[in-house]
Write a structure and sequence with these properties.
- The chain has 17 helices and 7 strands.
- It is an alpha/beta fold and 367 residues long.
- A 5-stranded parallel sheet has the order 2-3-4-1-5, with helices on one face. A two-stranded parallel sheet has the order 6-7.
- It is elongated and about 80 Å long.
- The structure holds adenosine-5'-diphosphate, magnesium ion and zinc ion (ZN).
- Keywords: ATP-binding, DNA replication, DNA-directed DNA polymerase, Metal-binding, Nucleotide-binding, Nucleotidyltransferase, Transferase, Zinc.
Length: 367
């Protein structure tokens, strides 16, 4: 049987160029190599699954590459690159602080740091999840970081910058990794789907990307999960039922009912949503986002803030022309109040119904 490799591993970028959505970071790192302005310590921070470990590895590999491309990318062919890709590099060391966080682990590492590299100019130490180091380990490490040997470069990575003591922060060049934009995640997923001969509707990718909340790793795991569930032909419907996402369509429909001041219709639609197993809070926060999306679609200047594409974008544009600003602002206020009161409410269903009724009456006052 063919070995299944999860997409997040199979599609780990191995050049700067293939890293998605972190262009300012990758270009700064490249420039540092190009201008031989390497610092002794780097700290990569940011949410999980956005490319910190990946970039640490690419950076380390590129620093040691013996045959850099003109574009400052690792060649992936020289002895150093091959050794690294085969996990047998003597110059690049990785320590996962999540599982090696004792002071002895750090002492082992700092002992190693003193030894100059056999080949190449630098020994590079990647310490992943560095916030997991024990206090004693941090202190032991600090000494090395204060006076690192000339050949040593440290790349620290963490999701929890606030847990890193200031004395360490002040010795590192810090890079803050961003959550990856929905559009960037979608197009990367599209590329993965094509390479895996999976056909998938673009709206389906959009939903996956939204659900991943900026983390590429999560997006790829969700993608795998849906492929194993639905096979090589993925539709929007598959994805929303698999991920328990409320169809956009409900929101477009309920706004139409609001505009028609159809209180009964909107209450029935809310009921239908509850019947599908969604809770009221899910609905009301989704409704707020929907109003926000309609609002930004009103103006060509702000429509770029809309993180969906294709057909759905067109639907937003159409609905936006039918909603005036007063209605949208009023509706947003009502939905937002409902959201804030939801947790404390004793009768949650009634609370949402009341909000629904109020929104459905907004345009009535004018007529
Ligand atoms: N910016 C990105 N571009 C492309 N793929 C990414 C990116 N960030 C994460 N990934 C995917 O997610 C996986 C995990 O990324 P990783 O670098 O370990 O994340 P982090 O260290 O930030 O938690 C990678 O193997 C890759 O498949
Ligand atoms: Mg990581
Ligand atoms: Zn190389």
């Amino acid at each position: 049987m063919e070995n299944f490799i999860v997409s997040a591993r199979k599609y780990r970028p191995d050049t700067f160029q293939t890293v998605v959505g972190q262009a300012s970071i990758t270009s700064t790192l490249k420039n540092a190599i190009k201008n031989s302005q390497l610092a002794h310590a780097y700290l990569f921070c940011g949410p999980r699954g956005v490319g910190k470990t990946t970039c640490a590895r690419i950076f380390a590999k590129t620093i040691n590459c013996q045959n850099l491309t003109a574009d400052i990318e690792p060649c992936n062919e020289c002895e150093s690159c091959l050794a690294f890709n085969g996990s047998r590099s003597y110059n690049i060391h990785e320590l996962d602080a999540a599982s090696n966080n004792s002071v002895d682990d750090i002492r082992n590492l700092t002992d190693q740091v003193r030894i100059p590299p056999q080949i190449g100019h630098y020994s590079i130490y990647i310490i992943d999840e560095v916030h997991m180091l024990s206090q004693a380990a941090f202190n032991a490490f600090l000494k090395t970081l204060e006076e690192p040997p000339r050949h040593a470069i440290f790349i620290l990575a963490t999701t929890e910058k606030h847990k890193i003591i200031p004395t360490i922060l002040s010795r590192c060049q810090i890079f803050d990794f961003n959550r990856i934009k929905i559009g960037d995640i979608s197009s990367h997923l599209k590329h993965v789907a094509t390479s895996e001969s999976v056909s998938v509707e673009s709206e389906a990718l959009n939903v996956i990307a939204q659900k991943a909340d900026g983390a590429m790793r999560d997006a790829l795991s969700i993608f795998d999960q849906i492929v194993s569930f639905s096979g090589r032909n993925i539709t929007y419907k598959d994805v929303i039922s698999n991920l328990n996402v409320l169809d956009y369509d409900y929101y477009f429909r309920i706004v139409d009912l609001f505009l028609a001041n159809d209180i009964s219709g909107s209450l029935l639609l809310f009921n239908e949503i509850l019947d599908h197993g969604f809770d009221g809070h899910h609905f009301i926060t989704g409704l707020s986002s929907h109003f926000r999306d309609v609002m930004v679609s009103k103006d060509p200047v702000t429509i770029q803030l809309l993180e969906v594409g294709g057909e759905i974008r067109e639907k937003y544009k159409v609905q936006a022309t039918r909603c005036d600003n007063d209605f949208l602002i009023g509706a947003l206020q009502i939905a937002n109040e409902c959201d804030l009161q939801y947790k404390a409410s004793q009768n949650k269903r009634l609370l949402v119904e009341l909000a629904t009724i109020k929104i459905a009456q907004l345009t009535l006052k004018k007529k």
